């Protein structure tokens, strides 16, 4: 039988007439502020160019000083039927903070050497009408899923929504359920994303081998401490990148 413990009962104190009047006056003032819009920021309709990377800048500076290996150890992927899913925003951000540019061409070439079958998918964010990043991947042999950035209006003004995590989870679930691959390589250092995917895969495909690929120093401690979910973590070496000149490569 369900029981609820109410604790020791005390009689409710009586409110004086002056207290009630004060409370009503306070509520009235708050209502008038809301009604007249006092202190509520308003969007004036002026178009602003919002930096889509602004939400990542603080997190990106937190990278550790982990040494970047010269070569990437891909031996755990040898002879596999491999599906690769890349979190492009994460790889680009943390490569930039190590003064590097992650090379998708070199990465796919290396994977095709060690694995028997490779199905590469990159999930990228882009502004509406901007196809340069999509063309970049297609010219390098990658399948690409483009998620458009959206600007939403909030009480604090326009906010850019730039997050593809749920889309990545959905795509991984779809690819894994097909049963055509025996190994998943998830290219991200995002611990929340990787742990969520790892849990789902272990529930539905416990036979699947799981690995992550991340930029040196970007892998979350939460991700590294889950050997129950992942078979290993691969650190991208300098052979999968090149120096970053300070300009974005979009095509």
Structural overview:
- There is one protein chain.
- The protein is α/β, with parallel strands linked by helices.
- The chain has a domain at 73-147 and 160-243: 5'-nuclease (Rossmann fold), CATH 3.40.50.1010.
- The chain has helices spanning 17-36, 57-60, 88-96, 104-114, 132-138, 165-177, 191-204, 221-224, and strands at 81-87, 100-102, 117-126, 143-148, 150-154, 157-161, 183-187, 209-215, 232-236, 241-243.
- It is globular and about 50 Å long.
- Residues 1-17 and 26-63 have low confidence and may be disordered.
- By DSSP, the count of extended strands is 10
Q: Which strand order do you get reading across the main beta sheet?
A: 4-3-1-7-8-9
Q: CATH-wise, what's the superfamily of one domain?
A: 5'-nuclease
C-alpha-based Rg, rounded? 25 Å
Q: Decide which structural class fits the backbone.
A: alpha/beta
- Tell me the β content: 15-25%
Integer average pLDDT? 80
Assigned CATH class of one domain: Alpha Beta
**What's the CATH topology label of one domain?**
Rossmann fold
**Unreliable runs:** 1-17, 26-63
Largest sheet: 6 strands, parallel
Write the layout of secondary structure elements.
Layout: H1 17-36, H2 57-60, E1 81-87, H3 88-96, E2 100-102, H4 104-114, E3 117-126, H5 132-138, E4 143-148, E5 150-154, E6 157-161, H6 165-177, E7 183-187, H7 191-204, E8 209-215, H8 221-224, E9 232-236, E10 241-243
Parallel strand pairs: 1-3, 1-7, 3-4, 7-8, 8-9
Antiparallel strand pairs: 2-10, 5-6
Helix pairs in contact: 6-7
